[in-house]
Amino acid sequence: GGMGIIMLGMMLLSRVIGGGMALARAELTGPSLSRLRPKLKQTAIALWTLYIVLTCIEFILLWTATPMDWFDAVNHSLTTLPTGGFSTHDASIGYFDSIAVETIVIAFMFIGGINFTLLWFIKEGEIRKAFGDEEFRYYLIYILVATLAIAAALIGSGTGIGTSLRHSLFHVVSIGTSSGFVTTNYRDYSNGGDWPLVTHLIIFVLMIVGASAGSTAGGLKLLRVTLAFKVAMRELVKIAQPRKIDQIRMNGEVVERNQIGLIVGMLIVWVGLFGLSSIILAIFMPDNTFESVITVVASSLGNTGPALGEYGPHDTWASMNSGALIITSILMWFGRLELLTAVILIHPHTWRKEEKVQSDRSAIALYRRLMEDDDKN
């Protein structure tokens, strides 16, 4: 998942082909990557240790404080923090109908959507540094606003206040972090479902945006969206004030041009891939609705799981034909690796360059052996 590809870059690729931190930066595409330890391997071990400890804590809480048995607790704890969303029941978390279960799962899904370096800062007692992070503040606002908006729509449609807040918070955190757990069926309000159309639009946005960079969540990530918005606002200001020099900052630090370029490139690639994939998928799914097609693409790229329309939270994708399944599988792979990371890995130049480096190293090693043999003779 998201944590896995960062750690893979740090621990393995840095040893095999070099540039582990560079690959991790491609995964994050922004100024959020921090070295918690002097060496990359130590950083990776520190984050994985924190990750495993949090997973164990969730397992204990689910097993001891909720109706879950040990089997359900193990499976759900292994798919909450990684924001995977797989459940042992077709009704997902809704099967348990337990506020205790939902509260614990919400908490750990939310944690899964936070940049893991911030979690490390909290562990080390640097709480002010963690809560002072600009992206984290936007993450809190993002979840809060979406929750209140959906709750208001549900209340307006006749649902009780408590139930509205309960379902709204759970699904905003679940979809916003690309977990995909559900407690109720929110799809197809026009055909007797429970949720108004406006909530579908909010859910669609949550699928696309995702959570924080450096987290296990999918989507574009709040960091990139925030910086893209700042770039757009700067360009609008330049129209009125051409001579004004305004630098893009994040957490008080100037964001370098190459990082902004990566972010803009990421957004362009994502939008292009989304549009092209929607058209291709529509060809393979001619009998499906527009809502179904575009949300399946968004769900695939964001690794969310449930979509809208005919592929909502209580439906599976088993009815898709082979062509559609192949396309969505590729999109899920791109979305999980992050687009630029995937492009780097599949680009021929990456491997041609590496082959050249390896051949150069082999030539040097051979030359040294020949020289040593010559000295012996």
Describe this structure in words.
- This protein has helices at residues 2-16, 20-28, 40-65, 70-80, 99-112, 116-123, 127-131, 134-156, 161-176, 197-209, 222-240, 257-284, 290-302, 322-337, 339-346, 348-376, and strands at residues 249-250, 253-254.
- With 377 residues, it is an all-alpha fold.
- The protein folds into two domains: 2-346, no CATH class; 347-377.
- The longest helix has 29 residues, at 348-376.
The helix/strand order is: HHHHHHHHHHHEEHHHHH
**How many H/I helices?**
16
The gyration radius over C-alpha positions equals: 23 Å
Strand order of the largest sheet: 1-2
Shape verdict = globular
Could you give the count of β-strands? 2
End-to-end separation in angstroms reads 55 Å
Tag the structure with descriptive keywords.
1% strand; 377 residues; 67% helix; globular; 16 helices; two-stranded antiparallel ribbon; mainly alpha
Outline the fold blueprint.
Elements (H helix, E strand, L loop, with lengths): L1 H15 L3 H9 L11 H26 L4 H11 L18 H14 L3 H8 L3 H5 L2 H23 L4 H16 L20 H13 L12 H19 L8 E2 L2 E2 L2 H28 L5 H13 L19 H16 L1 H8 L1 H29 L1
Antiparallel strand pairs: 1-2
Helix pairs in contact: 1-2, 1-3, 2-15, 3-4, 3-5, 3-6, 5-9, 8-9, 8-10, 9-10, 10-13, 11-12, 12-13, 12-14, 13-14, 14-15
